[in-house]
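ok trying this again, last paste got cut off
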Amino acid sequence: MTNEELIKEYQEGNHSALDELIKQNENIVKFFANKYYGIASRALVDFDDLVQEGWIAFIKAIEKYRFDDEEPIKFSSYASEVIKYRMITFINRNICRIKKSDSNSEQIKICSISETIPGTEDITIEESIADEQSEEPFTLIEDEIDNEILRQDLFNVIYTVLGKGAGLVRNVLIMHYGLKGQPQTFEQIAKKFKVTRQSVQEAEFKAIKKIRNSEAGKALMKKYQWMVFNSLEQEKDQINQFASPDVVLERIETLDELLYGILNQCC
């Protein structure tokens, strides 16, 4: 059976399909573990730890993979990107811990998210930000630091595009996606503002539209477009056998789901 067929069975409740998926794709995890072990060893990360992070990412990729008949993307291509960024994030965290614990080393000052990770030539902190948090039992490491960076970026965009007032259009995003506390339902927000549920939904649509069409919003989506399909433009040679990067990038840049995905990252 293909990966896609097994994933469909797993998502429909046949958990035994997971064993076959792991067996079929073990080389993907090993490939990226070997690729990044040279960097990981500098961060005192064991090869087995890197493999474990790869399997965590692989399971998350299975859970989040969605089928698109119009523009199909191979699971192996999608999973490779998720695994890669999970490993890079894990390595980056350990590098930061080593730097902080070494009293003789120079303190790392992160002035820009585009700075290169120590010990690498071209991997930036932006590229290493983790994917969505999950409550599944395979998740061993929380993404609180990375989410805080993303949350602050979101606040900056919301304030820039929608202002700092107390209006529904601005606050619906903050409240619905839990940017300040727990996420709230449309019904809860409607009750607080004394409006209908439909009014809240319309307000969110307006807020999303304003952000999507703004320069600040476009910059945010470009910065975090890897959350849907990580940096395909830089990986054309690697994934051309699976799908057209240009087609996928065009889809990423035109769909609202990217912005929704960024918001959901902070929930």
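PB: full thing came through this time. The CA atoms of residues 153 and 220 lie 8 Å apart.
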